[in-house]
Amino acid sequence: MIILMRLGASAEQIEAVCAVxxxxxxxxxxxxxxxxxxVGIPASLNADQRANLEAAIGALEGVSKVTQTSRPYKLAxxxxxxxxxxxxxxxxxxxPGTFVxxxxxxxxxxxxxxxxxxxxxxxxxxxxxRGGAFKPRTSPYAFQGLAxxxxxxxxxxxxxxxxxxxxxxxxxxxxxxxxxxVDILQIGARSMQNFPxxxxxxxxxxxxxxxxxxxxxxxxxxxxxxxxxxxxxPNVILCERGVxxxxxxxxxxxxxxxxVPVLKEYTHxxxxxxxxxxxxxARYVEPMAKAAVVAGADGLMVEMHPNPKVALSDGSQAxxxxxxxxxxxxxxxxxxxVGLRS
Length: 342
Ligand code: PEP
Ligand code: MN
Prior knowledge:
Layout: E1 2-5, H1 11-23, E2 29-32, E3 37-40, H2 47-58, E4 63-67, E5 87-89, E6 92-94, E7 100-104, H3 111-123, E8 128-130, H4 147-161, E9 164-168, H5 175-181, E10 184-187, H6 195-204, E11 208-211, H7 218-229, E12 236-240, H8 259-266, E13 271-273, H9 275-279, H10 282-295, E14 299-303, H11 321-337
Parallel strand pairs: 7-8, 7-14, 8-9, 9-10, 10-11, 11-12, 12-13, 13-14
Antiparallel strand pairs: 1-3, 1-4, 2-3, 5-6
Helix pairs in contact: 3-4, 6-7, 10-11
The protein binds phosphoenolpyruvate (PEP) and manganese (II) ion.
C-alpha cells in the first residue's frame, strides 16, 4: 500500500499516517519525493488489514491518495519510487541517460591475461571491467576460478587502469572478502534466489549487480532485488542474461529482451543486458547487444578474451578484442541515435 500525501502536507500529518500504520501492526516507510511525500508499507497485508487501513488513512488530513499495490515487491517498484535510480560507482553512472559497457573475460585466469583484457576493454571505451574469481560451474571438475588470488589481480588491474571492477560472489560468507577487492558485487543467475547471500550483499552497502535466474519470473527477479533493497542498500542493478531456451541446439539461453521494457515499466532500477550468456555464441553477441540498446537497456555486460580459443571458461561466447572494439563502435552509434550518452 502506498499513501501519497498532498502537496505541502505537514510533518505532523505525515506522522499521523505513520502512527495509524503502526497501530495496525505494520512498519511505515517515509519516502520524501521532490515535491510530495509518500508513505509506503513494505510488507504484505491481508485483505482485512488492507481494508481497515485504507479506511483509516483515507480519512486523515493531508492524504491525497491511497493506492493498493498489487505487486509483491515494494521497494523495487516504480509506484514506490517513481524516479529512475542512477547508481554512481566512482566516476561511472549506471542508469537512464548514459549507456555503460562492462567488458572482460568470463574468468580471471592470470595477471597477464587480465591485464591484457583490461587494456583492450579500456582502449575500446568501456568503463567497467568484469572477471570472475569464484566461478559457478556446472561441473565440479571444470575450472573453478582463482578465488582470492583472482580478486587481488582484479584490484591491482582496476587500480592501474582506473576501470570500475565487478566480480561474482557465490555465498554470503564470502561477501566481505569479495567486497574488499571489487567495486560491484555480482550475484550470478544460479544464485538469484540464494536468500542469505542476497541479505549479506544488501548489508555490505556495495552496489549489487543481480542476474536473473534462468527460469525466474519477473516477480521472482524483483523480489530477489527486494531482498537486497530491504537491507537498506539502494544500489541494485538488474541484469537480463537469458532464460532457459526451448532449444539448446542453437543458443545457450534465450535472451528475453522483452524483459527490458517490462522491467523499465515496473521498477526504477537500472537494467543491463548480457548478450554473452544470453546467446552463448560469439557471433550472436553483437546483434543482440544492438537490440538491447534499442530495447531501452541502460548498458551491457559483454565477455571478451585476449584469445578466446584458450579461455578457461565460456570461450565460445567470448569476443576477440577486435570484435569487442567493433561492438563498442556499433553500440555507441546506436546509443547516440536513441539519445543516450555512452
Ligand atoms: C558470468 O557472468 O560469468 C556468469 C557465470 O553468468 P551467469 O550467472 O549469468 O551464468
Ligand atoms: Mn561466463
